[in-house]
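Why does residue order matter? Because the sequence determines the fold. Keep that principle in mind as you read this record.
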Amino acid sequence: MRTTLTLDDDLADALARIARLEDRSLKDVINETIRRGLLTGERPAESARPAFVVHPEACGFLPGVDPLRLNQLVDEMEVDRFVREQVQVHTKP
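Structure:
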């Protein structure tokens, strides 16, 4: 399978040096290196930044908002928008 990789300069140099020293193709060196890395089962080093953590906070609707009637509110807003559009269409000269 063909793919394009963007390697860090230091890795590209090290892989090219190994390929040159062992008189092998860069492709073979890269494939072998990836295979060895996958076989070790080790995971890449974690970032130095701390993990992003979400702290949930209880929040609700403002007083007077009935969550059971939100669909009705949406319907009313759609009717209002439709009426405004119809008024604009019929009042244009």
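Residues 82 and 93 are 19 Å apart (CA to CA).
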